[in-house]
Amino acid sequence: MHELPLVFFTVLGQSAAGLYLIAYLSKKLGLIDLNQLKNANILAFIIVVIGLGIGGLHVGQPLRFFNMLFGVGRSPMSNEALLSGIFVGFGAVTLFFTLFMKKPLLRELANLGTVIFGLAFVWSIPQVYNIATIANWFTEYTTLQMWMTLLVGGGALAVIIGARQLGVLCFIVGSVAIFASRAGYQSFLSESGPQLSAEQTPFWAFQLVILALAIFIFAVTVLKQRMPKTILVTCAGAVLMAELAGRIAFYNLWQITM
């Protein structure tokens, strides 16, 4: 699948942005300590770098990435490339002032910048795909699912580092939104691309089953306050796989409107 690098790039990037946001807010609310925030920032940085590295395979030659920057301001793809770079840059600076040159004020400013540009990066992604000539993508459901990955993937990852209250809340909100919108989304696709939509059923079914199971596990985690770390890590990994499956289905809907 030619778009598979973009599947990983978007899902991992959005999930990392969600983790940065949820961990930062959790620290401000006193729900996690500084060490947990540090772990969250390390994990989020690793994930976004992996996503960016895999996404680079779609470009072919690494130097082509810089060619994409020539259209900043007028090209959604150029805006996405620029914001992804700034996002990763702020993430790296945050870790620098956290692990090496320990400057609390600079770390705080860099961390806030990472959160802000992470959100800007997530905003830029659906702008690339809301294309009038591709009817299956030209819908508000495209934007919705991109933002929900931030909540679902970021929430699941936040649970791992200890931000359980806010992480589970974000995960459940995102999952419920996905469930609630799925009927309307498929109704739209039944008109714009019925055959392609039907072919994506296994991917969507896998996504929804995993999300339903994860809701149960995370809800139990909050109620019991204790859950083996291996189960939480496995659950978060399964959630990312579910979002990857849903994104594969999205890219499979590509079809030029006649």
Automatic annotation (TrEMBL):
InterPro entries: DmsC
Keywords recorded for this protein, A-Z: Membrane, Oxidoreductase, Transmembrane, Transmembrane helix
Transmembrane segments annotated in the record for this chain: 6-25, 37-61, 81-100, 112-132, 144-161, 166-184, 204-223, 230-254
GO cellular component terms attached to this protein's record: dimethyl sulfoxide reductase complex; plasma membrane
EC number: 1.8.99.-
Listed GO biological process terms: anaerobic electron transport chain
Enzyme class label: oxidoreductase
An example Gene Ontology molecular-function term: dimethyl sulfoxide reductase activity
PANTHER family the record matches: ANAEROBIC DIMETHYL SULFOXIDE REDUCTASE CHAIN YNFH, ANAEROBIC DIMETHYL SULFOXIDE REDUCTASE, SUBUNIT C
Name the UniProt record assigns to this protein: Anaerobic dimethyl sulfoxide reductase subunit C
Organism: Moellerella wisconsensis ATCC 35017
Lineage: Bacteria, Pseudomonadati, Pseudomonadota, Gammaproteobacteria, Enterobacterales
